[in-house]
Design goal:
Two copies of one chain form a homodimer. The radius of gyration of chain A is 21 Å and the shape is globular. Chain A has nine helices and 17 strands. The first copy, chain A, is about 25% helix and about 30% strand. The first copy, chain A, folds into two domains: about 160 residues, Alpha-Beta Complex (Quinone Oxidoreductase, Chain A, domain 1), CATH 3.90.180.10; about 160 residues, NAD(P)-binding Rossmann-like Domain (Rossmann fold), CATH 3.40.50.720. The model of chain A has no long low-confidence stretch (mean pLDDT about 95). In chain A, strands 3, 5, 6, 7, 8, 16 and 17 form a seven-stranded mixed sheet that branches. The first copy, chain A, has a six-stranded parallel sheet with strand order 11-10-9-12-13-15, sandwiched between helices. By secondary structure, chain A is α/β, with parallel strands linked by helices. Chains A and B meet through strand 14, helix 7 and strand 15 of A and strand 14, helix 7 and strand 15 of B. Strand 14 of chain A pairs antiparallel with strand 14 of chain B, so a sheet runs across the interface.
């Protein structure tokens, strides 16, 4: 038996925004005959993440080679088992996997992780209890190392990772400055997520003005969790305190159009020297084997309603790949998902 | 009794090169009457270091406040005891202290460290066995953490710190690329200091060309010990390998004229992200209390002649403060000193 599998095939690297020429829509028959330990799954939620734009660079980045052209766009997925030839899996079971931008797949059972739908909404397996949560938790705790009373600054604070970092930093007893684009995001960060201070970077036309405001609000920065780069980072780096920890989680301001030709900014390493600060790049996959540590702490917080994990869900498989652009231009808060 | 003390008084912050308006020469009578535990010392070697230019910034740097105006320029000094009212010190004893750009001083014995003239030439207390050696040793071992077989790149490699880092990295079994300005320095680095590769950065007009050569020579960088910043650093950062360690020891290209207004360069933090690299600022004073650890290892190397510690000695107290400019424009190798 075959079923119709819908796919978005990555076919050309975008220079700027994603357009119709970069992804090709395909419908393919999928043979549902299952080998031993195989599952047929149906995607329910498909992830859209900034890192996808990094894999589209022509140069080595996380991986030695860019995302291959001509295959399904790789992505995290929350799926349901439709049919199982693997012990322990039943139709209807929820799993997280990496089957990409397609509606169905036949996978070996070792390629999926079971999701407990009692713990939290299943879509959180792509958010607070998944890759973004892991990035926020280990990036903050392992590289940022916040202490109670310290000042933590988060850029891209309304995003999937940033919004969790704000809350995790508050849990550590830090005072948190959340930087985001637009008054509405800022209001949400302060009123719902508990940020001590908020800054709408769009209200500042240069890094010196932004830096002055950061200085006035915080008196200096101990931990900077950076998702954005560019002008915001230029502003924060000049305001670090002694032995500050700067965590580079993303540089989204540099992905669009200029991944291979970054923009110019003021050279700031002299501040790192004066303050004996540390800048550290972090990546979710480096902490994959430690997911249980995070779930043991963050899981109960989520269950008790102590963490806001807002999701912005676009409905319909056809919303891909335009959803990628929403990461860069959108007004969404929290985790961006496409529901199939 | 009084003696004539000659002093260079710091009186105005230079924007670019140091000129006669920035330092004032004075001759002052010095009362040689000694209180309990005091010493009268005569400077023999006076240090000239790039960090002095950092202290002349109008903004907080290492210290919350810049070097005060109207006092003797602070500096490390190798001196001889002329008279002693402190137990254990005799006239003729050699000491290291921080009495600055003046020929004489009356100091409490706690302000000096004894030098053993049998161990090595006394001037090495301002070089390989002093602050530059400590900076090179702990910066490389604590922040750079080189492993045998790794690639270590050193900028400002012919300088007081850089020339030691090259050799310490070789002692660790690393392969070393030394970057310096001018063919003569490069030849010295390769022939006398054992660098595996050398690069004269002056032969490259942009960071992309320099980066291509670094890539071709080394295949990628594990440790970058940076004394220079600017274009050289722009070039190296794009060539780092996974989990590279970048040590920021100095940014001498940014001190002259632009300390408060750094030049523009390409934003490079995305490389730090891809490679999960670390950038760490280091400062000699943070390791002052661990000097014995370094001397236990490096001291015997110096005694056995296994370390080249070249000195460039200018003769005459009047050579200060022009000697400061030589750090930025000069063709000297190793440690720059003024002999009184």
């Amino acid at each position: 038996m075959t079923i119709l599998n819908r796919q978005w095939i990555y076919q050309q690297a975008p220079v700027d925004l994603v357009g119709p020429e970069h992804y090709r829509y395909e419908e393919q028959p999928l043979d549902t005959a299952l080998g031993r330990d195989e599952l047929l799954i149906a995607a329910r939620y498909i992830s859209v993440d900034p890192y996808m734009r990094i894999g589209q660079s022509g140069k080595p980045t996380y991986d030695p080679h860019p995302h291959p052209v001509g295959i399904v766009q790789q992505a995290g997925v929350v799926a349901q088992v439709l049919a199982s030839n693997a012990a322990g899996f039943q139709p209807g079971d929820w799993v997280r996997t990496y089957s990409g931008w397609q509606t169905h797949a036949v996978l070996h059972a070792s390629a999926v992780n079971r999701i407990d739908p009692q713990l939290a909404p299943v879509s959180t397996a792509l958010g607070v209890l998944g890759m973004p949560g892991r990035t926020a938790w280990f990036g903050l705790t392992e590289a940022g190392k916040p202490r109670a009373g310290e000042v933590v600054v988060v850029s891209g604070a309304a995003g999937a990772v940033g919004s969790l970092v704000v809350q995790f930093a508050k849990k550590h007893g830090a005072r948190v400055l959340a930087i985001a684009g637009g008054a509405e995001k800022c209001r949400w960060l302060q009123e719902q997520l508990g940020a001590d201070w908020v800054l709408d970077y769009r209200a500042y036309h240069d890094h010196a003005a932004l830096a002055a405001q950061i200085r006035q609000l915080t008196g200096g920065v101990d931990v900077y969790f950076d998702n954005v780069g560019g002008m915001v980072t230029d502003a924060v780096v000049g305001e670090i305190k002694r032995r500050a920890r700067i965590v580079i989680c993303g540089q989204i301001s540099q992905y669009n159009g200029h991944l291979d030709a970054p923009t110019l900014g003021p050279r700031f390493l002299h501040h790192v020297l004066y303050q004996r600060a540390t800048i550290q790049g972090i990546l979710a996959r480096d902490y994959l084997h430690r997911m249980d540590e995070m779930l043991a702490i963050v899981g109960p917080w989520v269950q008790r309603g102590e963490i806001v994990f807002e999701q912005h869900v676009l409905h319909g498989f056809e919303q891909l790949p335009q959803a990628l652009n929403a990461l860069f231009t959108g007004e969404h808060r929290g985790k961006l998902l496409v529901e199939v």
